[in-house]
From TrEMBL:
Regions annotated as coiled coil: none
InterPro entries xref list: 5peptide_repeat, NNH3, P-loop_NTPase, Pentapeptide-BTB/POZ_domain
Protein name (Swiss-Prot/TrEMBL): Pentapeptide repeat protein
Residues covered by the NACHT N-terminal Helical domain: 4-203
Species, as recorded: Coleofasciculus chthonoplastes PCC 7420
Transmembrane residue ranges: none
Length: 963
């Protein structure tokens, strides 16, 4: 029968203290080599107890070394290994430890670690580590010790063979599955104890539990019975929950027909952090095996079971937990980063949708008899929206909430436990103040204003703000945006010294060149899968961008080969190595995708600046050989490989805003240059034939489309700031329509990125018959004289758009925003304006015959001489609208709100004004012949000179009094 082994450290401390420290322990690897030889050198026998002591001692040292290696700023001259050995031996002199199954199951919880931690803190402080950092590092020692123990046992198996005969441990059990899971669970717990960026503390020490909401159908209301103006929007309510608690309840209920949950959140909202924390907590409690799969390391093309098998094999788990021959009876898989699934030539949303459906099919198949698999999928909102129709059960999609919801917005949620009343930013800053040593007790007052309120409400962004605040060189104001904070952090990275001197990879490199290289690395990652790139891709991008010499200067800082120099550069600045690709190249990934998006946005905006300067120089110098084709070729190299999305666009917009705040005239010039490039491109096409090596036609076409869409998006970022019309020469009346159809493609979801970038476009006279502009953004656009007959503009934003004399015959404007739009003399005959916002719009002399305005908001709109013959204005809001000389013959105004409206000389012949509110309305000279005014409120209305011939039913006391 296998027994325990008790180690009394007193005897070993004495043996080591007899001079062994001076002889052997001057380096971290002092105890390396054959176990018998090491023990012999210390004057110890190689019996089971001595071997067990060596296992523990080696694991402790390895754990401490790993923690020290992560603290990159430490000066090697301050690290005294001998002193560490002495202090460890003194701390262990009166301690003992029992090796048995329980110890190996949770080595991080053994009292021996608690005895060592104060000693480790003391020694770290001797190494010039601050007290706060020393404590933060030592707090991570337990799980690092457990991981080192696994590594030591597996890599030095021969040294510990004697222990296998004496002990019953997870390592010595015959079942490799148990061993593999035991090792993996320790790895999961270590993930949340690894340092955040270059800090001493870990995610676990600052993490604040997340809140979320799910949509619940409004009880007791049939959507068909709701007010038509509210039915489409208010049939669901948002129910606030604690995310961790909600998912643990779901796990415990273990329903086979409810085995999938989706977590949706914005960038930096804490989705990935939650996934790590949730997996680590489950691993620690041993309740259910859990597998965490970052999807940017996952191949979605394979059958799901086979793909999981390939993933666990490369991740060190020997068996496939979904395979029939070794399937787990219970398993939770967490797929993190649905938006990061990528496949060349396919639309990202389609890939995500296909993957989720494959997950559904697999889960249904494996759970036919009883539940064995549950799946949790996390991703950004856009990737989740494509899957909403497949997950209609209550609580299946959980939307992550920020740390702080302003009081005026809390009414939008059902919060039975008042969870939203807590400002979690205060909790985060308290945690951060403790572990960093800066002593914050809550959110600093200067950060609770303007844009910063939203930025600090996101976990990752909150941390970036904290870093910038500590640096003290950025002046925070209500207008500070995220790009300004990232820019400050880039400067901090450049200026940050390693032990008081620059990282040798950047010695002699100017700040602008350092940032330029990082931008190119980000571009390489964007052209990959958005987060990951390789050394070879970086070199190729630098060659294409004429940065070869600059890259060599980086490489000169190292004595070894070029690839190693890039490796060190990458691992030093917010990157981490993530394995190898299929070709064997080392891969690197951004520690957070948003950092890569920011750098990519910088690169794109700098390309705009460069192209403008070169074209401007061409105009001044006839010998300059730059032209539009060369400019578009460069643009294709930068923006062709990958389609832009709204997340990257937001960084582009904010980067452009920083330039606009300093030099608004530059952004205005860039806008004109981009207009000229688009005009040239539409006439001559993208010069894709210049790509080397030249791809096939299909790939050329794909890259051209991406580059063209990016041109439109970046132009729009300029226009949003200047609020000046983008005057593109369309060459023909159908040029824009043809182009937007090419960019648009087949709609998969309501959100089409290119349609969000159409504000402030000059579209005068364009033919856009039958076009799909659902949810399009045309704010401030000029449609004067354009033909939009039967176009779909449902939910479109046309705020302050100019539609003067536009043909909008039977166009669909349902729910559209036409506030302050100019519709003078527009033809809206038969148009659908149901629930549209026409507040302050100018409809003077417009043809609104048979148009549908049911539930529309026409507050203070101008309808002077407008033709509303037989129009439907049921329940429309015409408060204080100017309807002077308007023609309402036969129109339906039942229940309409016309309080204070000017209907002087309006024609209301045969109009239906049943239950309409006409309080204080001016009807002087109006024609009510044959109109229905039953139960209308005409109190204090001006009916001077009105025509009331024919049957006019009067039933309302107020009406009788007025008449």
């Amino acid at each position: 029968m296998k027994k325990s082994i008790k180690i009394n450290f007193t005897d070993f401390s004495k043996a080591v203290g007899k001079g062994g420290i001076d002889v052997l322990f001057g380096k971290w690897d002092s105890l390396a080599g054959n176990a018998v030889d090491v023990l012999s050198a210390l004057g110890l026998a190689a019996n089971a107890k001595e071997i067990a002591w060596l296992l523990i001692y080696r694991s402790l040292l390895q754990a401490m070394k790993n923690l020290i290696d992560e603290k990159t700023e430490l000066d090697p001259n301050h690290i005294n290994i001998k002193a560490l050995h002495q202090e460890i031996n003194q701390a262990l002199a009166t301690s003992s430890l029992t090796l048995n199954h329980n110890f190996f199951k949770h080595p991080d919880k053994d009292p021996i670690i608690a005895a060592i931690k104060p000693t480790f803190v003391s020694w770290l402080k001797q190494c010039q580590v601050s007290e706060a950092d020393a404590i933060a590092i030592s707090d991570r020692l337990p799980i690092y010790f457990a991981a080192a123990l696994h590594h030591e046992w597996g890599n030095q198996a021969k040294d510990y063979a004697v222990l296998k005969e004496r002990l019953d441990t997870p390592f010595t059990q015959a079942n490799q599955r148990i061993q593999a899971w035991f090792k993996y669970e320790t790895w999961l717990q270590k993930q949340v104890e690894e340092p955040m960026f270059l800090e001493a503390f870990s995610l676990k020490r600052v993490y604040v539990p997340l809140r979320a909401y799910y949509k619940r159908k409004v009880e007791g209301q049939n959507p068909e019975e709701l007010d038509p103006r509210l039915a489409s929007r208010d049939k669901f309510e948002r129910v606030v929950i604690e995310l961790d608690k909600e998912l643990k309840t779901w796990l415990n209920q273990a329903k086979k027909d409810d085995a999938i949950r989706l977590i949706s959140g914005s960038p930096g909202s804490g989705k990935s952090s939650f996934a790590k924390m949730f997996a680590a907590n489950l691993a620690e409690t041993d309740k259910i095996p859990v597998l965490l799969i970052p999807l940017h390391h996952f191949n979605p093309a394979d059958d799901l079971i086979d793909a999981v098998g390939k993933f666990v094999h490369t991740d060190g788990i020997l068996h496939n937990p979904l395979a029939a021959d070794c399937r787990e009876s219970r398993l939770l898989i967490i797929f993190d980063g649905l938006d990061e699934l990528a496949m060349q030539g396919k639309i990202a949303e389609k890939i995500a949708q296909d993957f989720v459906r494959e997950v559904q099919r697999t889960v249904d198949r494996l759970n036919q008899r009883e539940l064995c698999l549950q799946v949790l999928i996390a991703g950004r909102e856009l990737a989740m929206q494509a899957n909403e129709t497949d997950f209609r059960k209550e609580g299946q999609i959980l939307h992550v909430l920020p740390y702080f919801i302003p009081e005026n917005k809390r009414k939008n949620y059902v919060d039975e436990n008042q969870l939203l009343e807590q400002d979690q930013r205060q909790n985060w800053w308290q945690n951060y103040g403790t572990v960093s040593g800066y002593g914050y007790t809550g959110l600093p007052n200067e950060l609770d204003q303007g844009n910063l309120t939203e930025i600090t409400a996101q976990p990752l962004l909150n941390y970036l703000v904290a870093l910038s605040l500590r640096r003290g060189k950025l002046t925070f104001s209500k207008d500070t945006n995220l790009n300004a904070i990232y820019n400050d952090l880039l400067k901090a990275i450049y200026e940050r010294g390693w032990a008081g001197h620059q990282h040798r990879a950047i010695q002699g490199i100017e700040e602008r060149d350092f940032i330029r290289i990082l931008e190119e690395i980000a571009l390489a990652a964007w052209h990959g899968n958005g987060r990951t790139t390789t050394v070879r891709d970086i070199e190729n991008h630098c060659d294409n961008s004429n940065l070869k010499n600059l890259l060599k200067r980086f490489q000169e800082g190292f004595q070894d080969d070029a690839k190693a120099s890039i490796t060190r550069l990458m691992t030093a600045f917010y990157f981490r190595q993530s394995g190898h690709n299929d070709s064997g190249d080392k891969t690197f990934e951004f520690t957070h995708k948003s950092f890569g998006e920011y750098l990519t946005a910088r690169r794109i905006v700098q390309e705009v600046r460069y192209i403008h300067c070169k074209l401007e120089a061409r105009d001044d110098d006839p010998y300059e050989d730059w032209d539009e084709r060369r400019a578009l070729h460069r643009w294709a190299l930068v923006c062709g490989s990958t389609a832009m999305d709204e997340y990257l666009f937001q960084f582009v917009l904010d980067e452009m805003r920083l330039h606009y705040q300093k030099k608004p005239e530059d952004v205005a010039k860039w806008q004109d240059t981009l207009c000229d490039l688009i005009s040239f491109m539409l006439k001559h096409g993208m010069p894709m034939e210049r790509l080397e090596p030249r791809p096939n036609f299909q790939e050329e076409n794909r890259q051209a489309r991406n580059a063209e869409e990016a041109l439109l998006a970046v132009l729009n970022s300029c226009a949003r700031l200047t609020e000046k019309l983008s005057e593109i020469k369309w060459h023909s009346e159908d040029a824009f329509g043809n182009w937007i159809s090419r960019l648009h493609g087949q709609r998969i979801d309501k959100d089409v990125f290119c349609l969000s970038c159409l504000s402030f476009l000059d579209l005068r006279g364009c033919v856009l018959v039958f076009k799909d502009f659902y949810w399009a953004n045309f704010e401030g656009a000029n449609f004067e004289g354009a033909n939009l007959e039967e176009a779909n503009l449902k939910r479109a934003n046309l705020f302050e758009a100019n539609l003067f004399e536009a043909n909008l015959f039977e166009a669909n404007f349902e729910g559209a925003n036409l506030e302050r739009a100019n519709l003078k003399r527009a033809n809206l005959e038969g148009a659908n304006l149901e629930e549209a916002n026409l507040k302050g719009a100018n409809l003077e002399e417009a043809n609104l015959e048979e148009a549908n305005f049911e539930g529309a908001n026409l507050k203070r709109a101008t309808l002077f001489e407008a033709n509303l013959e037989w129009a439907n204005l049921k329940r429309a809001n015409l408060f204080e609208a100017n309807l002077f000389d308007a023609n309402f013959e036969g129109a339906n105004l039942e229940g309409a709100h016309l309080k204070g409206a000017n209907l002087k000389r309006a024609n209301l012949k045969r109009a239906n004004l049943k239950r309409a509110n006409l309080f204080e309305a001016n009807f002087e000279g109006a024609n009510f012949e044959g109109a229905t005014l039953e139960w209308a409120n005409l109190f204090e209305a001006n009916l001077k000179g009105t025509i009331l011939e024919g049957k006019v039913p009067i039933s309302s006391p107020e009406t009788e009094q007025t008449l």
